[in-house]
């Protein structure tokens, strides 16, 4: 499920990891990197303790190298005044998360001229050494003990160095190479290649790279062939001990790679050509000819992907685009990686994760962080930062992948619509889609057994469930909205709207249920901070429902329905609902379970929609309470609805007021592949509880 790191290429020199992983700028830095105060104050969680003179403890400033000393960035430790040297040293190493043997380190007092030891060392405290007599006290025991100390690594005449392959090699994380004063970058490469299975290739086509993996940025340095490795390690430790723990050495193929950065730019006008988008961006941000080209166009989204052949130009464009608006719309810029699909293992099927951080009472943001840690961060996308298209673009050449959508039914519909539009550009045109339900209703998640809503399960167990899930098919439907002038003036609706197409997965409601959804949507738009839990959201639904309980508009008089080009007479109803799945309104069975010879048993992959009527808010409440079902009206694959007046409409929970005109509902292309969570084995013999799973297609040979 993990996108192998060796199959991801992101050429960047000036972009931080927050940019590369599309992490919000407000995200907190990792603990232990960059969190020291610029003025030398202690980092968060390691604050200095103000102690009275008679206190049994004292605080010491600890620097981990020359770089920290120059920037006055230190950590503070509190140690007993009678602490032994080794205890102080171990406390200092813990402050910098250095887990190596304390015998390989020493503490030096600052300034060095304060103390001169009889052994010739200056103010040193070392573990296992003889700078002090056995049993003597540490720096805290001296009357004029210095306040600041610096950690130093003792010099080595030889050591073992871990060398990592810069390519995917299953079963081998690294090899250990014995480094002596004679060892150079070239000799290390020569020794490592046979151990990594590349001895048949010429060593001249490989190089040794030093990679510093800080919390904000990854820095690569190609070492010269004659670079002495032991001296290099000593210099790194002198600069920063913690930097040494964040540094790895890789054997990599020495291919010259031209600078190339992919920038995804959204917020542009819709429906333009590549040349028109190029001219528009040149006018807005002054792109440099010869360095910037438009490689992909998503005109329906008003988005393009730019190929930038210069690191400095890519950084300039990224910063400038984010502060630019075109035709009143602010632009969005994302740095995208390249997935080297030819290097993917044959059995690789990575998971493309989309998370809506605004869903689920803000649980989405926690899941975003968790999945970025459990998986490759480059396969986890935040939907509020560019939508689904950047993720599908990055995975466009991956031959086999699956999708996990973390959000409500509206979010799932958004991703499925993007998948439908991107299908012809994907090497895997029919990826299976799993759901982690974070919304209020979560009807599709219920049908596919993912539950009524996420309640804090371990994200790792969620990934295991996705890996074990079964693939099922589901119909998708196209709704053509064609508004006419007739009745527009009468109902104070804007002039003729251009025809548009929306996609439907779950249901489409016309009338009272859409009106309730619209009222809820408007309330959430006015005060989004209050809508942070499903319990509160459902309470608002109840409140707006009670306000409409006596509402009556006679919907059957305001619309006309044709099924398979045959006129259907409507009963007295206030709401007309087209359902594709056996769950509506947070799990209610609107169609009902009674057999009816007039209709086939509903299934989500049968190419048919069921049409149901409700008489009002009271009827809807009885359906959701399991006391009644809806009024069965029709079943078919092609529908034409004529709206005589402006009427509330909702599709998969997304409501609006539709102008008078026609609505044509028909099947949309191929069925989509969904992932259904496998049934958990019942604890005891008997019939396990199963919530309306009859509407889900069962693969051949599987039992219900």
Automatic annotation (TrEMBL):
Residues 26-53, 118-144, 672-704 are annotated as: Disordered. Pathway: Lipid metabolism; glycerolipid metabolism. It catalyses: 1,2-di-(9Z-octadecenoyl)-sn-glycerol + ATP = 1,2-di-(9Z-octadecenoyl)-sn-glycero-3-phosphate + ADP + H(+); a 1,2-diacyl-sn-glycerol + ATP = a 1,2-diacyl-sn-glycero-3-phosphate + ADP + H(+). Residues 346-483 form the DAGKc domain. It is an enzyme of class 2 (transferase). GO terms for biological process: phospholipase C-activating G protein-coupled receptor signaling pathway. Residues 157-256 form the Ras-associating domain. Residues 673-686 have a biased composition (Basic residues). InterPro entries: ATP-NAD_kinase_N (IPR017438), DGK (IPR037607), DGKtheta_RBD (IPR056392), Diacylglycerol_kin_accessory (IPR000756), Diacylglycerol_kinase_cat_dom (IPR001206), NAD/diacylglycerol_kinase_sf (IPR016064), RA_dom (IPR000159), Ubiquitin-like_domsf (IPR029071). The keyword Metal-binding applies. Keywords: ATP-binding, Kinase, Membrane, Metal-binding, Nucleotide-binding, Transferase, Zinc, Zinc-finger. SUPFAM superfamilies: NAD kinase/diacylglycerol kinase-like (SSF111331), Ubiquitin-like (SSF54236). It is found in: Membrane. GO terms for cellular component: membrane. Coiled coil: none annotated. Residues 119-130 have a biased composition (Low complexity). Gene3D superfamilies: 2.60.200.40, Phosphatidylinositol 3-kinase Catalytic Subunit, Chain A, domain 1, Probable inorganic polyphosphate/atp-NAD kinase, domain 1. One of its GO terms (molecular function) is ATP binding. Its EC number is 2.7.1.107. Belongs to the eukaryotic diacylglycerol kinase family. This is Diacylglycerol kinase.
């Amino acid at each position: 499920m993990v996108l192998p790191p060796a199959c991801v290429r992101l050429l960047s020199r000036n972009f931080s990891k927050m940019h590369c992983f599309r992490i919000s700028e407000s995200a907190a830095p990792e603990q232990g990197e960059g969190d020291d105060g610029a003025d030398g104050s202690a980092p968060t969680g390691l604050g200095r303790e103000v102690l009275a003179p008679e206190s049994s403890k004292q605080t010491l400033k600890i620097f981990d190298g020359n770089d920290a000393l120059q920037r006055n960035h230190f950590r503070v430790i509190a140690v007993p005044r009678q602490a032994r040297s080794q205890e102080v040293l171990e406390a200092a190493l813990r402050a910098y998360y250095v887990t190596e043997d304390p015998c390989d380190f020493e503490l030096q007092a600052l300034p060095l001229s304060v103390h001169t030891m009889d052994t010739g060392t200056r103010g040193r405290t070392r573990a296992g050494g003889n700078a002090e007599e056995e049993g003597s006290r540490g720096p805290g025991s001296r009357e004029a003990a210095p306040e600041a100390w610096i950690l130093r690594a003792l010099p080595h005449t030889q050591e073992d160095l871990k060398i990592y392959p810069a390519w995917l090699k299953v079963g081998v994380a690294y090899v250990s190479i014995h480094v002596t004063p004679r060892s150079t970058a070239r000799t290390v490469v020569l020794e490592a290649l046979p151990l990594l299975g590349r001895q048949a290739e010429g060593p001249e086509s490989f190089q040794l790279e030093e990679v510093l993996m800080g919390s904000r940025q990854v820095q690569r340095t190609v070492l010269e062939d004659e670079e002495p490795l032991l001296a290099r390690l000593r210099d790194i430790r002198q600069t920063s001990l913690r930097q040494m723990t964040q540094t790895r050495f890789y054997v990599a193929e020495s291919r010259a790679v031209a600078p190339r950065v992919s920038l995804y730019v959204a917020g542009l006008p819709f429906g333009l050509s590549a040349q028109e988008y190029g001219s528009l961006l040149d006018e807005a941000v002054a792109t440099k000819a010869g360095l910037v080209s438009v490689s992909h166009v998503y005109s329906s989204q008003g988005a393009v992907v730019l190929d930038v052949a210069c690191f400095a130009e890519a950084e300039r464009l990224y910063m400038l685009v984010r502060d630019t608006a075109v035709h009143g719309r602010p632009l969005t810029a994302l740095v995208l990686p390249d997935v080297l699909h030819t290097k993917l293992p044959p059995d690789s099927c990575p998971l493309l994760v989309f998370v809506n951080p605004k869903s689920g009472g803000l649980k989405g943001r926690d899941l975003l962080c968790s999945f970025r840690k459990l998986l490759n961060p480059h396969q986890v996308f935040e939907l509020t930062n560019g939508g689904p298209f950047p993720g599908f673009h990055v995975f466009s050449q991956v031959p086999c992948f699956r999708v996990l959508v973390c959000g409500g039914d509206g979010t799932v519909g958004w991703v499925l619509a993007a998948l439908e539009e991107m299908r012809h550009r994907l090497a895997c045109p029919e990826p299976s889609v799993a759901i982690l339900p974070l919304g209020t209703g979560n009807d599709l998640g219920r049908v596919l057994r993912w539950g009524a809503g996420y309640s804090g399960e371990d994200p790792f167990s969620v990934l295991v469930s996705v890996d074990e899930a079964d693939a099922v098919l589901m119909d998708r439907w196209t709704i053509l909205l064609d508004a006419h002038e007739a009745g527009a003036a009468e109902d104070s609706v804007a002039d003729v709207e251009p025809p548009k197409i929306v996609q439907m997965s779950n249901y489409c409601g016309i009338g009272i249920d859409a009106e309730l959804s619209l009222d809820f949507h408007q309330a959430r738009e006015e005060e989004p901070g209050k809508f942070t839990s499903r319990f509160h959201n459902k309470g608002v639904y109840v409140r707006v429902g009670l306000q409409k309980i006596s509402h009556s508009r006679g919907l059957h008089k305001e619309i006309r329905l044709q099924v398979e080009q045959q006129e259907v007479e409507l009963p007295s109803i206030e709401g007309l609902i087209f359902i594709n799945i056996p769950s509506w309104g947070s799990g209610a069975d609107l169609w009902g379970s009674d057999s009816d010879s007039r209709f086939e048993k509903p299934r989500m992959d049968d190419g048919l929609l069921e049409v149901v009527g409700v008489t009002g808010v009271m009827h809807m409440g009885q359906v959701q309470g399991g006391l009644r079902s809806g009024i069965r009206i029709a079943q078919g694959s092609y529908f034409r609805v004529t709206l005589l007046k402006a009427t509330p409409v909702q599709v998969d929970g997304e409501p609006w007021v539709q102008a008078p005109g026609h609505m044509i509902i028909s099947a949309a292309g191929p069925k989509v592949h969904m992932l259904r969570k496998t049934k958990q084995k019942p604890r005891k013999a008997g019939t396990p509880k199963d919530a309306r799973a009859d509407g889900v297609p069962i693969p051949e040979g599987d039992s219900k």
